[in-house]
């Protein structure tokens, strides 16, 4: 189970990459603009995990959008958490939803969505989408801007 922490204890310190999501720590910091309708986006264009059957690497573009409540995710902890999947064997759907559910548990956002745009293995890309919450009227959320697969990139 991923560890949650309030504060930015990883900033300014050299830390080892966690070897799995279970060893990672996600940190949150107070949102200085709580109550404002704005969307924060994180894009991980080089996300990597392992196929749980073959052990071969799987690659994805992960796009995370959320409308913060009281908390923001601390970006260094998010980078380390996402990197921890490089040694983690799980199917595309499991990786995408676990990332989303871990972040929702940490942040308690007003609205959240994640898009996992996976590069093909065996000729078929698998894209995974998950969202929770209601987006307030008038909140601008850009399209995730990931084209359908035609050699993405």
From TrEMBL:
Chain sites annotated for binding substrate: 73-75, 92-93
EC number: 1.7.1.13
A Pfam entry, by short name: QueF
Entry annotated with the keyword Oxidoreductase: yes
Cited InterPro entries: GTP-CH-I_C/QueF (IPR043133), NADPH_dep_7-cyano-7-deazaG_red (IPR050084), QueF (IPR029500), QueF_type1 (IPR016856)
Gene Ontology MF annotations: preQ1 synthase activity
Subcellular location: Cytoplasm
Family: Belongs to the GTP cyclohydrolase I family. QueF type 1 subfamily.
Chain segments carrying region Disordered: 1-30
Record protein name field: NADPH-dependent 7-cyano-7-deazaguanine reductase
Keywords from the UniProt entry: Cytoplasm, NADP, Oxidoreductase, Queuosine biosynthesis
Coiled coil: none
Keyword NADP: yes
Catalyzed reactions: 7-aminomethyl-7-carbaguanine + 2 NADP(+) = 7-cyano-7-carbaguanine + 2 NADPH + 3 H(+)
